[in-house]
Design goal:
Strand order of the largest sheet: 2-1-3-4-6-7
Structural class: alpha/beta
Largest sheet: 6 strands, mixed
Shape: elongated
Order of helices and strands: EHEHHEHEEHEEHEHEEEEEEH
Radius of gyration: 23 Å
Length: 315
């Protein structure tokens, strides 16, 4: 059986991990990728992206700081690409770049747009207790994640979904969706469904230690906190403090039990670490103590000998 020959010229922009998975998929399927734009040279993932493109025999079009650099834009213009594809990128594409391909740029976004526009839909769909999520392929405009939708695939979240498992699953899905779209594009025009311009849609704000929004709020219910822990596991980490040292909680179990304790109070240390929440109790399954060690809740108790009545704080 003769493999299909693709002639449409594709400019690929992205950064690991989604971009690596998508790039390998497209290259192995014979998509005509005429150039790869990696992250900026000072980004920690720059070399990985460049090395991958070069091993696949694809020319790299890098830039120093700005995507608006005239020399960079001229090199992209000279490619005369039909379509630009973005698979995870940490910079907004300027208008002058978006205009340099015949049919514009398309982007993969791991959420059910228009909900969860933003940097981190993975965590927020878990934290908010969503039962399903989606991946969306859409045209790009000058704003983040607001362009016309081409296609969308919805799927159910697992009961014990973590940020990591969802990240892995959606990366694989996105690679397949992108290939199918580009295969269709070879002889067709993409459908377009405009997104709503107004509405109270859920956001996917950045979660980070610097923003102080990755600390556990013990006044919330054990159910909410357990989702928060899974939603930040493993790439970000749900944090609390014990005796002035930061603890990173990786996983925990809910114990349905009424109590009158101050939220954050250690209520039991027999064989494990149990903490009172605003409602019910969490039994800590996996925990990291500062930068010193990662252990089970039981090992943590044996090593540090915490006492009942001691309190874990939100910061």
């Amino acid at each position: 059986m003769t493999e299909k020959t693709y002639t449409k010229k594709i400019l690929f922009i992205g950064m690991p991990d989604m971009a690596l998975i998508c790039l390998h998929k497209l290259a192995n399927k014979g998509i005509n990728i005429v150039g790869v734009v990696p992250p900026a040279k000072n980004d920690s993932t720059y070399k990985t992206m460049v090395d991958t493109a070069q091993k696949l025999g694809i020319e790299v079009f890098d830039y120093n700081i700005s995507l608006s650099d005239k020399g960079f834009l001229q090199r992209i213009k000279n490619l005369d690409a039909d379509l630009g594809v973005v698979a995870s990128f940490n910079k907004k594409l300027p208008k002058e770049l978006l205009q340099l391909t015949k049919d514009g740029f398309i982007n993969l976004h791991p959420s059910k747009l228009p909900d969860y526009r933003g940097a981190n839909p993975y965590s927020h769909v878990i934290i908010n207790g969503e039962e399903e999520s989606a991946i969306t392929l859409h045209f790009m405009d000058e704003n983040f994640d607001t362009g016309d939708i081409i296609s969308q695939y919805r799927f159910n979240l697992d009961l014990n979904e973590t940020m990591g498992t969802l990240f892995y699953r959606t990366n694989q899905m996105c690679a397949s969706m992108l290939y199918e779209a580009l295969d269709y594009y070879e002889n067709h025009t993409f459908p377009r469904k405009p997104q709503p311009t107004e509405g109270n849609y859920k956001k996917a704000e950045t979660l980070s230690f610097e923003r102080r929004n990755t600390f556990i709020d013990w006044t919330k219910s054990a159910e909410e906190i357990e989702r928060f822990i899974r939603g930040l596991n493993p790439y970000i980490g749900a944090l609390t403090t014990y005796n002035g040292t930061i603890l990173r909680i990786n996983s925990a179990y809910i114990i349905e039990k009424h109590h009158n304790l101050t939220p954050g109070t250690i209520c039991d240390t027999k064989n494990s670490l149990k903490v009172a929440c605003g409602e019910d109790i969490l039994e800590i399954d996996s925990i990291q103590y500062g930068g010193f060690f990662i252990s089970s809740g039981r090992d943590f108790v044996e090593r540090l000998n915490p006492k009942k009545g001691e309190i874990l704080y939100s910061e």
